[in-house]
Amino acid sequence: MVSILNKLLGREDESSTQGSSDTETVRRISRELDRLDPVEARYLAAFAFVLARVANADSEISEDETRRMEEVVCGVGGLTEAQAVLVVQIAKSQQMLKGGTENYLVTREFNAIADRAQKERLLHCLFEISAADDSISLVEEDEVKTIAGELKFDHREFSTVRSQYNDKRSILK
Questions:
Q1: pLDDT surpassing 80 at residue 144
Q2: Do 61 and 70 touch, CB atoms closer than 8 A?
Q3: Contact 135, 173 (CB under 8 A)
């Protein structure tokens, strides 16, 4: 019998997951979303983790950021509120435990599995999470800029999206 993980990742046998480029973070969240198509589960797992990355940029994930992440994940993934809460909690926990080592790896995986429109949607969502407390701090903005670079957005593209959130940027207040 094929394991749940293999089924989610569309693998034929256990040995094929050992060489997988999936990170443990993405696999853990994916397992919690077994009702989804494996490709969709991987996408949502990476999406949620990158949201948590920005929320944790200042070393604290606020209740406002958590609630906004749940709303975003619910909308993006078509999940129930309970499922979105679970996904966000796992992403937050993984971010706090492994963020330093997983940040780039998960973002790189998201870059590989998402199309350009999905990447731009994530970029907007990152600013929304940063602005959850009505202010985007410089450290949050810098983290979004780093992620944008990892997603292959050039400076002009990043600036165009960022300009839509100028009223929330603390540096401009």
A1: yes
A2: no
A3: yes
